[in-house]
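Ops channel
N.P.: pipeline sanity check, posting one input/output pair.
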């Protein structure tokens, strides 16, 4: 299909997981895609795999989302290769789960540097061009942690709540310029991070089953299911969706209790 034909997109944290799935889905839908990733080796491998599978124009750019200059340079390189940027997906993120009273200052700063400042750095880098052209779409990857609290996960949900606030504020601010800013809130998604968590438990299979048992659909989501939601938001099929968040969690967050 060609739902993103002719569009130029940049996806942060696109070397693996949800970010890689989004980059692949965008390429399948006709977009030229830049993978902005801190781990450039894995980004190069992912970019090559996407090129071979789709034949799309794909590049990898080493990017540290915690550094505004690095993000601006990634945008400049993307536009030098492909032309003006139509779509930015702020996907890069890390899990920082601490006890609030024993958490270090460095833990707090590390979480916010990636999970909130990194999103803002991406938005700030692309907004001038999008506003000037009166055309553009930003998709921020938030989380169900953006509106639900799981004990023991502090300060991650604080940062993710901030992502929703940032999404709404920028979406309203630049709506008159035809720049849309939306978010996606994934729930449990089967990424390597999920497998790493299961593997770190005393009984991997029991931990996996406990996770599945929590889900109304008795399974967790796949990265491509988040990716296709991003395709929809980035496409011309969603021109009146702005300052909103789409939840992709199989209904988990709608449960009152287990």
């Amino acid at each position: 299909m060609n739902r993103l034909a002719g569009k130029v997109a940049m996806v942060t944290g696109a070397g693996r997981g949800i970010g890689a799935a989004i980059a692949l889905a965008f390429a399948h839908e006709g977009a030229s895609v830049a993978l902005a990733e801190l781990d450039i080796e894995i980004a190069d491998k992912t970019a090559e795999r996407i090129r071979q599978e789709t034949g799309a124009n794909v590049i990898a750019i080493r990017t540290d989302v915690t550094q505004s200059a690095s993000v601006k340079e990634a945008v400049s390189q993307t536009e030098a290769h492909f032309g003006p940027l139509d779509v930015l997906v702020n996907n890069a993120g890390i899990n920082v789960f601490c006890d609030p009273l024993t958490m270090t200052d460095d833990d707090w700063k590390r979480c916010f540097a990636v999970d909130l400042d990194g999103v803002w750095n991406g938005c700030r880098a692309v907004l001038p061009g999008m506003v000037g052209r009166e055309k553009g779409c930003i998709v921020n990857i938030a989380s169900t942690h953006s509106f639900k609290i799981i004990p023991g996960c502090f300060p991650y949900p604080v940062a993710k709540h901030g992502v929703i606030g940032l999404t709404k504020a920028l979406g309203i601010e630049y709506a008159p310029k035809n720049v849309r800013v939306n978010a996606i809130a994934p729930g449990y998604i089967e990424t390597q991070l999920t497998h790493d968590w299961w593997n770190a438990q005393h009984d991997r299979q029991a931990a996996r089953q406990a996770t599945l048992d929590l889900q109304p659909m008795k399974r967790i989501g796949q990265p491509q299911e988040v990716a296709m939601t991003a395709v929809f938001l980035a496409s011309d099929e969603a021109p009146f969706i702005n300052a909103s968040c789409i939840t992709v969690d199989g209904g988990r967050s709608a449960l009152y209790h287990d």
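N.P.: looks fine end to end. The beta strands are 8-12, 32-37, 58-62, 87-90, 97-98, 136-141, 154-155, 179-186, 245-248.
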